[in-house]
Design goal:
Length: about 600
């Protein structure tokens, strides 16, 4: 029998990819001569443990002898919750007693817990054999053999081993094949679709491609918007009406979408209604009433940035695993998502992440160039207009102008030139920092007060543009007049960006003021830059130093920022072993800089 079983299974393994599982179950049924052979997968779902672990068994394949008809079509016939079930009892028995299979008569007391007990009796099946399928010493599936009478067949360890190895191999090959087929279709889709539009890229994926290999009723993709600090809906198959009209989104800390991103791992939720009754915002589904489906179960997969595993820039959500091959009163059976589903879609998400990162990088590049070009136009136009007026007066031989105003016009040209050079230098420093290239500093001895004064002069045009009283930028009389052994331009960039932010984010109708103060500490120099602007929200105090991040307060008052300045400030200090933090949030907002004494002369 063992040789016959091996031959039948080897023949099954040579079948077409899509028939692997069916042919394998048919081979086992034929050789072991059972009336019905079924393969079930064990789903170790990762719903929050405090809500009860949803471990279940889902039907993968069923093969019956001709003439044998399954009498009922209940949901329980396709999904068996394991908790307190006969299947759980069988798995515990085989594990605790160290046996490789379990056999019983349908009339045994324990067997009466079987969910399909009545259906088995109706079919005349009275003898059952369960064979757990183990991988890495953990049951991942089981084969159930059912007979109409007590079988004379005598299983042994060799037969069990062959069945185990064959089923593990088939399940693995089946999953690998599906992964390869999905990736092939994703590549074709990427080449054919307009890849300059993420929505065009994703819509056919969730509408068609995934559905060929993975059961689900509804799906959606959310993409992170760093400007608004929330996940916006990109595409969906589940919303009723035009979702564009209300911009479906989830904020930080809101809903399964954000909790999946925060934990950076796939999550399965098998009882959404129960979870939502807990009244916890992380389970919120605020668009439930706008969907076509009931959302009983959900799988959420994070799309992680390949270049930074800590950055999640998208979430794929799938609701209600629907098996359209199995029907209840003509309707598809709703199943549980499982770890195999996670592995399948997670594999596809790695490829999609590369597409998204490429798209976002190009979009950010175009957006950055556009914004920077706009910002550079202001000082460039001011230089041109001032120079043109100066030239007209010069050609008109206007002696009064030349005697009275020429110096101020030339100074204005110099001021705007210095401003534009500082903007360019800031962005060059950012580019160098992002490529992990060290700046080639011109280290020399410079007075800290002179560096601050130079920075103040550079922001003069910005102050005029925002109608800010320039004499309210001052250095406290107690500020230590020490010399630093640093690159002067780097520290001018540092103070320039702090001052620029203070000017841009002044409270409307309030007095503008920036004060530089500081003192020597045992470990180095402490510099405090305080302004009386709009303040910083406590939740943003650390985030604002990240590239591209702006505080919510800043967005409300000024839409022109890019989230670059403070990131550059922190990067410069990091190269000198220094630190910066927000030591006071408002009235005044205070940035505290710590510079090691190694860079301070005559300490």
């Amino acid at each position: 029998m063992i040789n016959k079983l091996r031959a039948a299974l080897l023949n099954a393994l040579e079948s077409d990819t899509n028939d692997l599982i069916t042919k394998t179950i048919e081979a086992i049924q034929s050789v072991l001569n059972c009336d019905m052979c079924t393969l079930w997968s064990i789903n170790y779902n990762n719903t929050d443990e405090d809500l009860g672990e949803f471990v279940s068994a889902s039907l993968v394949e069923r093969y019956m002898k001709k003439g044998l008809v399954y009498p009922t079509h209940n949901r329980e016939d396709y999904v068996h919750p394991l908790k307190n079930s006969f299947i759980e009892y069988v798995l515990n028995e085989t594990n605790e007693n160290n046996i490789s299979y379990y056999k019983c008569n349908i009339y045994d007391d324990n067997c009466k817990q079987h969910i399909s007990y009545g259906s088995l009796l109706e079919m005349g099946l009275v003898y059952l054999i369960y064979i757990p399928i183990n991988k890495n010493n953990k049951p991942i599936a089981f084969i159930k053999l059912a007979y109409k009478e007590n079988t004379p067949i005598d299983l042994n360890e060799d037969i069990i081993t062959v069945v185990n190895e064959a089923v593990v191999s088939v399940l693995s090959r089946h999953l690998i094949n599906k992964k390869q087929q999905i990736l092939s279709e994703l590549i074709i889709n990427y080449r054919q679709m307009n890849t300059s539009n993420l929505k065009n890229l994703f819509q056919p994926i969730i509408d068609n491609i995934f559905k060929k290999y993975f059961y689900y009723e509804g799906s959606s993709v959310f993409i992170w918007d760093s400007f608004d600090n929330r996940y916006y809906l990109l595409v969906t198959t589940g919303l009723i009406g035009n979702s564009e009209s209300e911009r479906v989104s989830y904020e930080k800390g809101e809903g399964i979408t954000d909790s999946t991103a925060t934990e950076k791992k796939a999550k399965i939720y098998d009882n959404l209604l129960k979870l939502e009754k807990i009244n916890d915002s992380k389970y919120l589904h605020k668009y439930r009433e706008k969907t076509r489906h009931k959302n009983e179960t959900m799988l959420a997969i994070p799309i992680v940035r390949p270049s930074n595993p800590n950055d999640v820039f998208g979430i794929m959500r799938f609701t209600n695993k629907v098996n359209r091959q199995s029907l209840i009163d003509g309707c598809p059976v709703i199943d549980y998502f499982n770890d195999t589903d996670v592995e399948l879609i997670q594999n596809a998400s790695h490829y999609l992440a590369l597409n998204i990162e490429n798209y976002l990088a190009e979009e950010e590049r175009r957006d950055f160039i556009s914004k920077m070009s706009h910002e550079y136009k202001t000082p460039a136009n001011a230089i041109r207009i001032t120079a043109e007026r100066f030239l007209r007066k010069f050609l008109q031989n206007d002696d009064i102008f030349m005697q009275s105003y020429a110096q101020s016009y030339l100074q204005s040209i110099i001021d705007y030139s210095e401003l534009q050079l500082m903007q360019v230098t800031t962005n060059l420093f950012l580019t160098r920092s992002n490529r992990n290239r060290k700046a080639s500093y011109a280290i020399d001895n410079h007075s800290i007060i002179d560096i601050i004064k130079d920075s103040v002069n550079i922001v003069r045009p910005i102050a005029r543009e925002h109608e800010v009283r320039f004499d309210n930028i001052r250095i406290d009389s107690t500020f230590p007049n020490v010399s630093l052994k640093v690159d002067k331009n780097a520290f001018k960039i540092l103070f320039f960006n702090l001052l620029t932010n203070a000017i841009k984010y002044t409270k409307p109708y309030s007095e503008f003021k920036v004060i530089f103060s500081g003192y020597k500490s045992p470990t180095g120099l402490i510099i405090k830059v305080s302004d009386y602007g709009i303040g910083i929200d406590r939740n943003d105090a650390e985030r604002i130093f990240l590239l591209g991040v702006r505080s919510d307060n800043a967005k409300l008052i000024n839409g022109e920022g890019y989230g670059i300045g403070l990131h550059v400030v922190k990067s410069i200090l990091k190269m000198y072993g220094g630190e910066i933090r927000v030591s006071h949030l408002s009235n005044p907002t205070t940035f505290e800089i710590k510079l090691p004494r190694d860079y301070i002369l005559n300490y």
